[in-house]
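Notebook p. 47: complex prediction with fe (ii) ion.
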Amino acid sequence: MEDLFPIRRVDHIRHFVNNARSSAFYYQHTFGFDITGFYGLETGVKDEAGYLLEQNNLRVVFSAPLRPGHPMAEKIAYHGDFVQDIAFEVDDVDWAHATAVARGAKSAAEPHWVEDEHGRVRMAAIHTYGDVVHTLLNRDGYKGHFLPNFRPENQPGDSIGIKDVDHCVGNVELGKMNEWVKWYEDVLGFKNLISFDDKDISTDYTSLMSKVMASGNGRVKFPINEPAPGKKKSQIDEYLEFHGGAGVQHVALLTEDIVYTVSRLRARGVQFLSVPKTYYEMLTDRVGEIDEDIDVLADLGILVDRDDEGYLLQIFTKPTTDRPTLFYEIIHRKGAKSFGKGNFKALFESIEREQAVRGTL
Ligand code: FE2
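Predicted complex, C-alpha cells below:
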C-alpha cells in the first residue's frame, strides 16, 4: 500500500515540565534511562534547559523554562507537566511540512536549520490536538549525537529493558475523536486499524470510545479516545478537566521481558493499577496457555490478552504527575498486534476505584 506520508520513526517524545532536572532524575532512577544530553545556560541557551534520556531506541526529552513569562511557563502553569511533542524523523522536512499544511495542518514552525559545530539539522513542526505538536526533523549528515545545542552527558541509568515506544494515546473532547481520526488520515496518511465503541469499553459507570490510527508503514500507532456518556464521570472526562483540554494520556513502552521490567519498576517504587485476584483465576480460560507463570504475573499485577495472532502482556502505572493525567503502559507483545481489549473492563474498574479515592468519579 502506498505510504502517503513517510515517517521513519518517532524520533523522540518531549515533555514540558516545571523542573527538567528532577524529572530527568526521576525517570533515570525509576525507568532506568541513561541521561545522554543536556542544554541550558551552560550550552548558550538563555531561557530554557533540558535533558535527553535514552533507553535502546526510545528517546525522551524533558524541557523547562528558566525565566518567568516564558511561553513554555504559561503552558505548564495551565496543563501541568505534559507531553508537548511527539517528534517524527522524516526523509524530507520541507516536503513533509508543505504537504501537511496543504492537507490542512496548522504550522507550528516553518522549516528551518538548527546548527552547531557538528553540523545542522532541518526542523519544522505542525500542531495536532491540544497543545501537542509533531516536530518533523531530518539529521542526515549531522555529526553530533542528537540535536544541536545539546551537550553530551554520561549519566547511565540501570536499564529495565525498555526497547522502544509502542504507541501514544491521545484524549480528545467529546465529539472530537472522528475529527482527529480524519486529520490523521487526511494530513499524515494514517489508517484506522481498530475501533472500539462504548459497548466494548464500558463499565457500570463510565464509557469511552477509541480508534487506533497507524502510519503508512505501521511503525507509529496513535489510539485516540473520547469520552462517551456514562452514569458517572469517565476517566477521559477527568483527564480533560485536569489537563485543561486534549492531550497525551499515556505512552506505551515496549519490553521483551515484562516480568523483569515490572519487577524492577516495582522495586524502585513505581505504582501500578491493580486488578482483583479473581482476574487471574479466570485467566487461563480466557487466554489459554501462556509461557509465563501466572502466579508471577498475579504477584506483579501484569495483565494478559490474546488476539488472532498471539498474546500480549501489559500493565499501567498510576499517573506519574500530581494531576491525574499522564501515565505509562508497559507492553510485551508475543505475536499480538492489538491493544488489550479483553483487559479494558478490569482496567477501567481499577481506574474508577482510583477516581473514587480522588473524588472525581
Ligand atoms: Fe495503551
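Notes: The chain has ten helices and 17 strands. The longest strand covers residues 107-116.
Next step: compare against the earlier run before touching the bench.
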